[in-house]
Design goal:
The chain is of the alpha/beta class and about 425 residues long. It has helices spanning about 5-10, 20-30, 35-50, 50-65, 90-100, 120-125, 135-145, 160-170, 175-190, 210-225, 250-260, 265-280, 290-305, 305-320, 325-330, 355-365, 405-420, and strands spanning about 80-85, 105-110, 150, 195-200, 230-240, 245, 340-345, 350-355, 380-385, 390, 395-405, 420-425, 430-435. The strands form 4 sheets. A 4-stranded mixed beta sheet has the order 1-4-5-13, sandwiched between helices. The chain has a 4-stranded antiparallel beta sheet with strand order 6-9-11-7, with helices on both faces. A 3-stranded antiparallel beta sheet has the order 10-8-12. The two termini are about 40 Å apart.
Length: about 425
């Protein structure tokens, strides 16, 4: 077998065999296949594509390049949820404990943020003592004892993906559905869950800006899951505006706490939490023949009764986090950062808040990374007092910006003016676009 022949084959648009794909991944990791050769193959894949079988074989080869967790000892269907990334998306913080409070085991491995997309592990880092770097044994034990775990991705988990992603990032081959799908699903399959719910974002603040692309990605990932013997559902959700009231690590944890404590529940956030949980519940062992309305009532009761919030505190404590700190988040923001109140320049209805631009504001304030090595300010970010559809009078506070320095605050102030539109009316739309 020869890598040049494999490149030529894919360049002509022909299907690669399982043996050719595994030979390529193994050769890449051993160093026998050079970066420039892999880059050529990635470009050929980007231009010519891969069919469902090829994409699945690539995913499995990437999965098998490192550790693969075996969660069969849990004795129940273990469920995972993955988001393709968004601005203000703190759903994982809410959904994991909520589902665990209903008896559904949740095994989650999360990443850190890059660019305008926030990472769940960065958010959890803002809780003193919380430990996301845990062993496989601790990961499994927490599923058994607490019912939910959220850990940083193991360095030995799908190492081929890390290698390929680094090459894609510098060779203009990021924008390829087979490569995106295999990257996401290799990690999902390696982390051991039996069933997966995918939250595929669509809009200005998402990688897939239009529905057709989001649907194609969702279908590719569902196909991989099914061919790999996993149950999978995809929910396509709107990311044209930030999700919830807060954007920024500490601020999003605070919103998640206030949501679970019944203090503050953004309607769009509530809607997506219930929908994603409903799909997860239907894939679990807890599900019996019941209507969607009955499932939704079970989920809503877990929120309103405080059962989900109690489980959230167990989850934080189980991974070493300070529960007293969590309880303090039910009240006012408490950070040393300086702040700025962005006010309405005229009266009217907030007709749009551009998610991509708000992501850039958050980045300017210090809440995000421009590269993987960059340090972030866990306490920087934005809290919205008003969201799309709200009426504002001239001078009303729309949002408060938080940053560690005047320079960063000024950079955020300069951008937020472009992000928010106030007009005479607005067009309402459901955050749930489709379920596949």
């Amino acid at each position: 077998m020869n890598i040049v022949e494999i490149i030529e084959k894919k360049k002509k648009g022909n299907e690669l065999t399982s043996e050719e794909i595994r030979y390529t991944i193994e050769g890449m990791l051993s160093g026998n296949i050079k970066d420039y050769q892999m880059s050529a193959l990635l470009m050929a894949i980007c231009l010519k594509g891969m069919n469902a079988k090829e994409t699945t074989e690539l995913t499995l080869a990437m999965r098998d390049s490192g550790d693969v967790l075996d969660l069969s000892c849990i004795g129940k269907t273990v469920v995972d949820k993955h988001s393709t990334g968004g601005v203000g998306d703190k759903t994982t913080l809410i959904i994991g404990p909520l589902m665990a409070s209903l008896g559904v085991p949740i095994a989650k491995m999360s990443g850190r943020g890059l660019g305008i997309t926030g990472g769940t592990i960065d958010k959890l880092d803002s809780i003193p003592g919380f430990n996301s770097d845990i062993s496989d044994e601790e990961f499994i034990d927490l599923i058994k004892t607490v019912g939910v775990v959220d850990a940083a991705q193991n360095k030995n988990l799908a190492p081929a993906d890390k290698y390929l992603y680094a090459l894609r990032d510098v060779t203009g081959t990021v924008d390829s559905i087979p490569l995106i799908a295999s990257s996401i699903m290799s990690k999902k399959l390696a982390s051991g869950a039996d069933a997966i719910v995918l939250d595929v974002k669509c809009g200005t603040g998402a990688f897939m800006t239009v529905y057709q692309s989001a649907k194609a990605l969702a279908e590719a990932m569902i196909s991989i899951a099914k061919l790999a013997g996993k149950t999978c559902v995809a929910v396509i959700t709107d990311m044209n505006q930030p999700l919830g009231y807060a954007v920024g690590n500490y601020l999003e944890v605070r919103e998640a706490v206030r949501f679970l404590a019944g203090k503050e529940q953004n309607p769009r956030l509530y809607r997506i939490v219930v929908e994603l949980c409903k799909q997860m519940y239907k894939l679990s062992d807890m599900y019996t023949e019941m209507s969607d309305d009955e499932v939704e009532e079970i989920i809503k009761d877990a929120i309103s009764s405080g059962k989900a919030y109690k489980k959230f505190k167990e989850f934080i404590s189980g991974q070493g986090g300070d529960v007293g700190f969590v309880e303090s988040l039910e009240s006012a923001v408490d950070v040393d950062n300086i702040s700025y109140e962005y006010r309405a320049s005229k009266s009217g209805v907030i007709s749009s808040i551009d998610a991509e631009l708000i992501g850039r504001v958050s980045l300017a304030l210090g809440a995000g990374r421009v590269n993987k090595e960059a340090e972030i300010d866990l306490y920087a970010g934005i809290i919205f007092d008003k969201v799309v559809g709200d009426f504002v009078n001239e001078g009303d506070v729309i949002a408060t910006l938080y940053a560690a320095s005047g320079g960063k605050l000024e950079a955020g102030k300069a951008l937020i003016e472009e992000s928010v539109s106030v007009s005479d009316s607005f067009s309402d739309s459901d955050i749930i676009i489709d379920v596949l």
